[in-house]
Specification:
single chain, 256 residues, alpha+beta, Nucleotide Exchange Factor Grpe, Chain A, domain 2, three-stranded antiparallel beta sheet, 13% strand, disordered C terminus, chaperone
Length: 256
């Protein structure tokens, strides 16, 4: 026997057949049939809905201003991209030129010792010693000098130039001071001796010139003491003016 108070008893459950549908059920049924305004594109996201609502509220003038802003932004991006591409092209061209100009840097630095040895061999004999040597030895020395000149010419043809700063002012960017000696005949900081020739390749320093520089400078001649100037006589004191004597330029009253 069923309990009349039991809600789960099938006999006590209300009959829902023929009952009117609720509004929620109507909305669900409408969604299931696809009769919503967004049926063609699917249900929009919240961002899309906000953008669509904002576009609907914009006036024609506001829409034109928005489009002009987008065009300006795209133009700015395009100009930046073109500038970046041009800078990249110039950088690549500069790197290519540097690679071609300084490709022989390591080779040139290693072969400098060959030129140094030829110069040392030439400097071993002075002009007086050359006069007393046999003809074959003199010819050998001249051949070494010609070889050195050809060596420097070939190096310069490939962008390597020698630095011989004798008598010039010391430049720490190109010279390396090996010693310092007093020399009153030269200004202080003058290159008085070149121990080893320096070299540059292009606009880069390949090897600094090793030099000796002067210290002190020429002696300054003492200035003669100023002679005492002769005393000038003082001007005589002006005489007291005579009231009865007319002064120059004044008119004399002739009326008694």
């Amino acid at each position: 026997m069923s309990d009349p108070k039991d809600p789960q008893d099938p006999q006590n459950m209300p009959d829902t057949e023929g009952a009117p549908e609720t509004p929620a059920e109507d909305a669900a049924a409408a969604d299931s049939t696809g009769d919503t305004p967004w049926a063609e594109g699917g249900e929009p996201t919240s961002k899309e809905a906000l953008e669509a609502a904002a576009d609907a509220l914009l006036t024609p003038e506001a829409q034109i201003a928005e489009l002009e802003s987008q065009v300006n932004d795209l133009r700015d991006r395009l100009l930046r991209a073109v500038a970046d591409a041009e800078n990249t092209r110039k950088r690549a061209e500069r790197d290519k030129q540097d690679a071609s100009k300084y490709a022989m840097t390591s080779f040139a630095r290693d072969i400098l010792s060959v030129g140094d040895n030829m110069r040392r061999a030439i400097d071993t004999l002075s002009e007086e010693d050359r006069q007393g040597v046999p003809e074959p030895v003199r010819n050998l020395i001249e051949g070494v000098e010609m070889t050195e000149r050809e060596f420097l010419s070939v190096m310069e043809r490939h962008g390597v130039k020698a630095i011989n700063p004798h008598g010039e002012k010391f430049d720490p960017n190109l010279h390396q001071a090996m010693f310092e000696a007093p020399d009153p005949t030269r200004p202080a900081g003058t290159v008085m001796e070149v121990v080893a020739t320096g070299y540059v390749i292009g606009d880069r320093l390949l090897r600094p010139a090793m030099v000796g520089i002067s210290k002190g400078g020429p002696a300054v001649a003492p200035q003669p003491a100023a002679e005492a100037a002769p005393e000038t006589p003082a001007d005589p004191a002006p005489e007291a003016a005579d009231p009865d004597k007319p002064t120059p330029g004044s008119k004399i009253d002739t009326k008694a």
